[in-house]
Design brief:
With 255 residues, this protein is an alpha/beta fold. It has a single domain (58-236), classed as 3-Layer(aba) Sandwich (Rossmann fold), CATH 3.40.50.11240. Helix content is 35%, strand content 18%. It contains 8 helices and 8 strands, in the order H-E-E-H-H-E-H-H-E-H-E-H-E-E-E-H. The strands form 2 sheets. The chain has a 6-stranded mixed sheet, sandwiched between helices. It has a two-stranded antiparallel sheet with strand order 1-2. It is globular, with a radius of gyration of 22 Å. The N and C termini lie far apart (56 Å).
């Protein structure tokens, strides 16, 4: 047998790891994880906790949105603090007051955008402004009017219903920080509701999820889907389970 070091065995999992951020094919040290994998897991858990509990950078977000030549308004939910927000989801769906949001008659604006901090402040800090920029660019190109962008603190998706109705918007898009996980802690979701009003059900919304460049859905692609849903909702007269994303043709049926 010739000398020299043996060639290490090919890691079966390596090509699969390059295609996903999920934890697959973790190493073992006896009957436990390796020290490296255990420390990586603890680090990811800390990042996820920070995403949920740390406040968003509201001043930077307002500056970024205002730089897009958009008016900005503010609203808070009835959840007074983060602990209450996490324990009482119902309070996160109701505005404490709409005094900071300009009121208008129904149909005054075609589209309203509400940025809700949700369960990941990091998602907004990293992705909200470029996503809004992409949505605004396509909305203006389609000659649709935009309401002032509303920054909603301690907010959940349902807060967009009373806010959108107060703004007089035909369609509201609530961009919310999605629940942080151990693989992804900075993902945005966008929930579209046509003819928003208090009491709308989740089945009356459409969701575009995992918006985060470069590892998730890109900003331009998300904006393309959202605008398609806006136009589709206006034609159909409703959003929700009957409204489908037609931006990509379905695969052919097998014969």
């Amino acid at each position: 047998m010739s000398g020299g070091s043996a060639t290490p065995a090919l890691d079966f999992w390596e090509p699969l790891r390059s295609a996903t951020q999920a934890r697959i094919g973790l190493g073992r040290a006896g009957d436990a994880l390796t020290t490296r994998d255990r420390l990586a897991l603890r680090s990811a858990h800390a990042v996820a906790r920070d995403a949920v509990h740390l406040p968003w950078d509201l001043d930077a977000l307002e500056r970024g949105v205002a730089a897009l030549d958009l008016a900005v308004a503010h609203v808070r939910s009835r959840a007074d603090d983060r602990a209450t927000y996490l324990r009482r989801p119902d309070l996160g769906r109701e505005p404490a007051s709409l005094a900071g949001v300009p009121g208008a008659d129904e149909g005054t604006y075609d589209v309203a955008i509400v940025l809700a901090d949700g369960l990941s402040a990091a998602a907004h800090d990293h992705h909200a402004v470029p996503l809004v920029q992409a949505v605004v660019r396509r909305t203006r190109a389609a000659d649709l009017s935009l309401a002032p962008v509303v920054l909603a603190t301690q907010a959940r998706v349902g807060l967009g219903d009373p806010v959108g109705a107060h703004l007089g918007a035909t369609t509201v898009i609530v961009v919310v920080g999605e629940r942080a996980g151990l693989s992804v802690a900075d993902s945005l979701g966008a929930y579209l509701t046509h003819l928003p009003r208090p009491g709308r059900r989740d089945s009356e919304r459409n969701c575009v999820s995992n918006i985060r460049e470069p590892h998730g859905l890109g900003y331009d692609r998300a904006a393309e889907i959202l605008l398609g849903l806006v136009v589709g909702a206006r034609r159909l007269g409703e959003s929700g389970v009957r409204l489908k994303d037609r931006s990509v043709a379905p695969p052919p049926e097998l014969g």
